[in-house]
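Summary of Year 1 activities. Much of the first year was spent building the evaluation harness for sequence design. The harness presents a backbone, in tokenized form, and records the residue chosen at every position. We chose the following record to illustrate the format because it has been used consistently in internal testing since the harness was completed.
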């Protein structure tokens, strides 16, 4: 399935949920005296979904890949900061919530890595490179593939019929 809007991407939605969870965490009283820490983790969390969106809208796989790597890096930054929170005494009462958010960030990283790998193994260069000629070529390739499947099915039926007659 080829997505046409970044809002439909499962990984973008997971990244938005990560940011929502981070904002819920940083609204806690423990963050009042740690403004810079709060600001940094919030910026990193928002960066994940924003970079997915920006890369998606660029229209080429090379640019998308660059932004997906940045998004993955931001997800790693969120995880690193959550590990720091786990070790700071002021945040001990939030360990369960922190670990839950860390799992969300890890999920985003895994999804981004899988998407990156699939893009790297793809011949598709991106929407910016699609034109009438490439659309026609794609349609012809699809029609050829469907024809070859039909032909294989006809041959298989013929072989089965031959096997019954002997």
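For this record, the design step produced the sequence shown next.
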């Amino acid at each position: 399935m080829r997505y046409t809007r970044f809002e439909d991407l499962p990984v973008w939605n997971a990244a938005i949920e990560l940011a929502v969870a981070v904002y819920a965490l940083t609204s806690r009283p423990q963050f009042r005296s740690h403004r810079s820490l709060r600001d940094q983790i919030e910026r990193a969390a928002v960066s994940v979904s924003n970079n997915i969106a920006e890369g998606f809208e660029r229209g080429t796989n090379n640019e998308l890949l660059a932004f997906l790597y940045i998004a993955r890096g931001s997800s790693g930054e969120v995880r690193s900061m959550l590990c720091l929170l786990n070790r700071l005494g002021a945040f001990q009462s939030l360990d369960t919530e922190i670990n839950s958010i860390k799992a969300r960030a890890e999920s985003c990283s895994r999804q981004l890595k899988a998407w990156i790998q699939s893009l790297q193994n793809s011949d598709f260069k991106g929407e910016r490179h699609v034109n009438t000629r490439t659309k026609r070529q794609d349609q012809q390739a699809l029609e050829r593939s469907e024809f070859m499947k039909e032909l294989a099915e006809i041959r298989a039926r013929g072989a089965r019929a031959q096997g019954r007659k002997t």
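The chain has two domains: 6-128, 131-166. Quantitative recovery figures across the full test set are reported in Table 2.
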